[in-house]
């Protein structure tokens, strides 16, 4: 999978811009605050219909403008697909092959991406919400049913929490109805995540051994707030534990257990990775990203597009070399950087773009 061209209209500091890309490596070079990350973000946005930097769509639209459009031509499994996303005061419109998509879950997964940004280095020591977001983005791209189950779960969770906040005395029968729905969708979300982490841990371990020259072993554990030994037990256990927490939830006015409370733990040679060095954290996150690429390829039959947002300077020559060796020509890659000086062993098949004041030149 690779994107041949992309057009931006009123996106961040780009009023009107179009670029054609190499199926191999593409590098955006420019000083800070010129628009390098904005262009990379637009590619991410075209894939996932959202930004990785803000939750507010209005921030994506050029100042003084009321709408934006991002469109591109995607090569996927020997076919070409035009993609388009438009934002306006009326809302969001997504199109695949010029046809409007009724639901976001129908659109997401058409163009898959793996992003490696500086904030990803916080995956190991940052808050659990960062790791849940990592899970949601990856799983959402390769498993549309996950997005649907997660959306239903979040809807019921919002209902349950709103009810707990509104009433002084809880109607236990009504709460049990909400519990049943929450356990149904929540158990599905946990099963999706459980299976995904098994595959991710296995794949990431291979890459981590390669990057660490066989000196370190990486394992990943899914920490669920629902206690279970077998995935078949999750729904019943979820219901049982919700009932046990009725008094606590009524007092605190929120839901104490469920996938919205879950987390991941990383281990290097059996020791929690949070105690490791910065170099180990970089190797771990790099291993995760490479594992994501391989899992997406396994599930979809096509490699995703790799976005490296100002992270090459964070990687030493050894890690840079391993990364570029592994992706080779199979994965279309976009890199943002302020300078080419620190980039080593670049392939021949590449395009270099200079970005200045929201203008791009090859």
Automatic annotation (TrEMBL):
Database matches in Pfam families: SMC_N
One GO CC term on file: cytoplasm
Primary residence: cytoplasm
Gene3D superfamilies reported in the protein's UniProt record: P-loop containing nucleotide triphosphate hydrolases (3.40.50.300), RecF/RecN/SMC, N-terminal domain (1.20.1050.90)
PROSITE patterns reported for this sequence: RECF_1, RECF_2
Keywords for the protein's UniProt record, in alphabetical order: ATP-binding, Cytoplasm, DNA damage, DNA repair, DNA replication, DNA-binding, Nucleotide-binding, SOS response
Compartment(s) where it occurs, according to its Swiss-Prot or TrEMBL record: Cytoplasm
Domain RecF/RecN/SMC N-terminal: 3-358
Residues binding ATP, per UniProt: 30-37
Superkingdom of origin organism: Bacteria
Transmembrane segments annotated in the record for this chain: none
Keyword NAD found: no
GO MF annotation list: ATP binding; single-stranded DNA binding
A GO biological-process term: SOS response
Assigned protein family: Belongs to the RecF family.
Function description: The RecF protein is involved in DNA metabolism; it is required for DNA replication and normal SOS inducibility. RecF binds preferentially to single-stranded, linear DNA. It also seems to bind ATP.
Record-given protein name: DNA replication and repair protein RecF
High-level lineage: Bacteria, Bacillati, Bacillota, Bacilli, Lactobacillales
